[in-house]
Every structure is written in structure tokens, then in C-alpha cells.
């Protein structure tokens, strides 16, 4: 077959994920809430299958349109990488959202980001971390309520155990952006003195100065970071009932893969990253516009969310190749390496199925559909020595394959190889 030819073996191996979308967009539709059920709110979402979702429009007044006028229905059909119905479990989201591929890629050295986007109350926090109160008391790690973050951590450790060719060093941080102020969720004292976001020349990226980063040797260490941050988030929001709808949280796991060169030489060969982002409620951007706020006031409502929208709009429109305004907000600065096209992204759009929320749901689905058009070229954050090792490995594989090919050809001719290099 073609793939056995030496030319093919000499070609660089495609990076994982090539040929697949590097931005996956899935939708999760939560069940009707008790309040919605009690109010006899209608369920306006349908699931035709194959990643499709139909949002039923408001019924038109009788006789307002004739059949075939093209105006008979305002229902809208959307298509995504996957759609989760209200019956989907937290485990289903792990298994069918594509997050497993993201985690494997983070282990390989890519920058990977999972976002939850949607209006307040649509299920963002439920999807990422679980229902409210899960982290209030004693946390049961086996609880079926655990969200995608905890499940991803478990899967990450499975992956690491399978890669014995590297030694992995994990560090985690957990921050909140509220009113364009960065607060360290692992160091509640920072609420009084917000942290600065700075540019690092060395790593050519933005970073948060003095952010606590915790060494995580085991799964339990990562889970402790999650628990601690979740507790501080709810304590910090005391007395402000819309705090969580206005704030973004970013939980980051840095995954450094180290290679042993000799007895005493170790170097960091690849530097992967996994971000989990719980965004502010998407209704916030609308508030900014509808209330005719000045720029400064808009800052206080939600600059980061607005700028994220501009970035996604610019990235998804090939005609607008020019300026992408990453630098205009804290959130987009910190996610720039993922958004800028070097990373791999999973966006989970969360919606309510209720008719009373249909216009917010429509906004969310449109935003998600736009994000799906973004094309990125992820790159591995690799040490030059690692790149050399890989290219040498490929050369060896190519020579090996050429050799095998030759031997095969000689055998075909009925000849015997003398001094077979493969023989001991
Ligand atoms: P958001 O973070 O988007 O504001 P939440 O995650 O807090 O929304 O969800 C609002 C409420 O709906 C919570 O009580 C949550 O547990 C519940 N909920 C959200 N999604 C689901 C779901 N898929 N299944 C069951 N309950 C859900
Ligand atoms: Mg929330």
C-alpha cells in the first residue's frame, strides 16, 4: 500500500488532530428548571440527531403567511460537533464532547482550552464543576454530580501513566476575573490587591504576576486545587448575588514533559496547557449595549466578555484577517495563545430549553455557530532539543522502512540477502 513507501515514512508525522477541527463546538441543553416547569414554560428545542439542534420559533399568528412564502416558520436549525440533550449525564459530556482528545493533546504539548458559554442559569458551572453546593462540605470524589473538570483530571492521570517515556511535572492555578480585576482563587487575600497581567518576553505570552501555582504530583493535588478555588469563589461572592454571573474563572493545568538526557541532564521538552474557563453570563454583553453605557461603565459590566466576542467574530471571518483585539481585555490576553491559532479549543454552549429564554438561547447558538468557523493551526510548545530528537527518530524510521522495503523487494526476486543488517 501507499503508506508503506519510504517517501511516506520520511514525511513528518502529522500533529495529532490534524485534519480534524481544532475548534470543536458542542451544545448542552439543560432540563427545564422547576421554576420553568411550574410556569408551564414550553420546551422549544428539538433534537434531530447528528449534532443538529432545532430551535422552534414563536408560532406565527394564524393567516399571517401563506404556505411556500418561506416565512411560514421561524424555527432555526443549527449544526454542531455534538448536542447533549437534557438526559445527558456528566459522564456523557466527558465521553462525547471531544475533551478526551483535548487532554491527550495537552499532554503532547498543545495549549488547550475548554470554555462554557451561555446565559446565567444555563448550566455552565454545572457542566464544568457540578451543581451548586457540591464543594461546600466533604467532597465525594466518586459523586456522579462531578463535572467535566474533575473527570478530565482523572482522564489526564490515566494518560500520564501511559507515557512512561517522559517524566511529567504538573502545576495548577485557579483565578477569577471580576470587573477586569484578576483575583487568585487559591489566595483569597488577593481580593484586596488584584494581580497584574504582564507580558513575558521569554515565553512570548501573557501571565499573571504572583499567581499561586501549585505543584500537583497526584490526582488528589489537582482535586484539592479545584475544591479550594470553588470554596473561595463562593466565599468571595458573599453578598453580591450576581457575582458569579459577572465573573469569569480560569483553572489552568500546566503540563511539562521532561526528558532525561543523561545521568544528570534533564530538560523540559514540551509544555502543554489545559484551561477550563467558566465565562460570565452571556446576557452581560447585551446589558452593556442596551443600557447605553459609556466605555468605562461597560468595563465594569463586562469588557472581557465583549472582547472575547470581538475576537471570535474576527477570527471566524476570513475577510477580517487583520487585527484581533486580544490585548483589549484580561480574559483574552490570558487565552491569547489558545485563541490566536496555536491552540485547540472546545466550546460548550449551554442553553435553557424554555420558551421564555428563547432569545438568549438564539444568541448563544449564533455565537457558537460563529466560533465553529474559526480555523486554527495548533503548534506544540517544544524545546529545540525535543524537535531534534523527533526529527532523528523520523530519519531512523525512514531508513528502517527503506531497508525493509529493499529486503522485501529482494525476496520478491527470489534472491537471498547477504549480510542481512537486520540479523543479529
Ligand atoms: P450557570 O453557571 O450557567 O449560571 P448553573 O450551572 O449554575 O448555571 O445552573 C443553574 C441551575 O441549573 C443549577 O441549579 C444547576 O444545577 C442546574 N442545572 C444546570 N444544568 C443542568 C443539567 N444538565 N442537569 C441538571 N441540572 C442542571
Ligand atoms: Mg455559573
UniProtKB/TrEMBL annotation:
Organism of derivation: Frankliniella fusca
GO molecular function: ATP binding; microtubule binding; microtubule motor activity
Disordered: annotated segments: 1-23
UniProt record similarity statement: Belongs to the TRAFAC class myosin-kinesin ATPase superfamily. Kinesin family.
Principal location: cytoplasm
Keywords, sorted A to Z: ATP-binding, Cytoplasm, Cytoskeleton, Microtubule, Motor protein, Nucleotide-binding
All residue ranges annotated as the Kinesin motor domain in the record: 22-374
Keyword Cytoplasm appears in the UniProt entry: yes
GO cellular-component term (any): microtubule associated complex
GO BP term (any one): mitotic spindle organization
The name this protein goes by in its record: Kinesin-like protein
Places the protein is found: Cytoplasm, Cytoskeleton
Binding-site positions, ATP: 118-125
Amino acid at each position: 500500500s501507499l503508506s508503506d513507501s519510504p517517501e511516506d515514512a520520511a514525511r513528518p508525522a502529522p500533529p495529532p488532530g490534524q485534519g480534524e477541527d481544532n475548534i470543536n463546538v458542542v451544545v448542552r441543553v439543560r432540563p427545564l428548571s422547576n421554576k420553568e416547569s411550574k410556569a408551564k414554560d414550553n420546551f422549544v428545542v428539538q433534537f434531530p440527531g447528528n449534532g443538529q439542534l432545532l430551535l422552534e420559533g414563536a408560532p406565527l399568528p394564524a393567516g399571517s403567511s401563506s404556505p411556500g412564502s418561506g416565512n411560514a416558520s421561524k424555527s432555526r436549525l443549527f449544526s454542531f460537533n455534538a448536542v447533549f440533550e437534557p438526559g445527558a449525564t456528566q459522564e456523557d459530556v466527558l465521553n462525547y464532547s471531544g475533551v478526551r482528545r483535548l487532554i491527550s493533546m495537552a499532554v503532547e504539548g498543545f495549549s488547550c482550552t475548554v470554555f462554557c458559554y451561555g446565559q446565567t442559569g444555563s448550566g455552565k458551572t454545572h457542566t464544568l464543576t457540578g451543581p451548586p453546593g457540591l464543594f461546600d462540605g466533604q467532597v465525594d470524589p466518586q459523586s456522579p454530580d462531578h463535572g467535566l473538570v474533575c473527570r478530565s483530571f482523572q482522564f489526564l492521570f490515566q494518560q500520564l501513566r501511559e507515557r512512561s517515556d517522559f517524566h511529567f511535572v504538573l502545576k495548577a492555578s485557579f483565578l477569577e476575573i471580576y470587573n477586569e480585576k484578576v483575583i487568585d482563587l487559591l489566595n483569597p487575600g488577593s481580593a484586596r490587591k488584584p494581580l497584574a497581567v504582564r507580558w513575558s518576553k521569554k515565553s512570548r505570552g501573557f501571565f499573571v504576576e504572583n499567581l499561586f501555582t501549585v505543584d500537583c504530583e497526584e490526582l488528589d493535588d489537582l482535586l484539592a486545587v479545584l475544591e479550594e478555588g470553588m470554596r473561595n469563589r463562593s466565599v468571595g461572592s458573599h453578598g453580591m448575588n450576581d457575582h458569579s454571573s459577572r465573573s469569569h474563572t480560569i483553572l489552568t493545568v500546566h503540563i511539562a514533559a521532561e526528558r532525561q538526557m543523561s545521568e544528570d541532564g534533564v530538560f523540559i521538552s514540551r509544555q502543554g496547557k489545559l484551561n477550563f474557563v467558566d465565562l460570565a453570563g452571556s446576557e452581560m454583553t447585551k446589558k452593556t449595549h442596551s443600557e447605553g453605557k459609556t466605555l468605562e461603565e461597560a468595563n465594569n459590566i463586562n469588557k472581557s466578555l465583549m472582547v472575547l466576542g470581538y475576537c471570535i467574530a474576527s477570527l471566524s471571518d476570513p475577510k477580517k484577517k487583520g487585527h484581533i483585539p486580544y490585548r483589549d481585555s484580561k480574559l483574552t490576553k490570558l487565552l491569547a495563545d489558545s485563541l490566536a491559532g496555536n491552540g485547540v479549543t472546545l466550546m460548550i454552549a449551554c442553553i435553557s430549553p424554555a420558551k421564555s429564554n428563547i432569545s438568549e438561547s438564539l444568541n448563544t447558538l449564533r455565537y457558537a455557530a460563529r466560533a465553529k468557523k474559526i480555523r486554527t493551526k495548533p503548534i506544540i510548545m517544544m524545546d529545540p532539543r525535543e524537535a531534534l530528537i523527533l526529527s532523528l527518530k523520523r530519519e531512523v524510521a525512514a531508513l528502517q522502512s527503506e531497508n525493509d522495503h529493499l529486503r522485501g523487494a529482494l525476496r520478491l526476486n527470489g534472491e537471498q540477502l547477504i549480510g542481512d543488517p537486520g540479523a543479529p
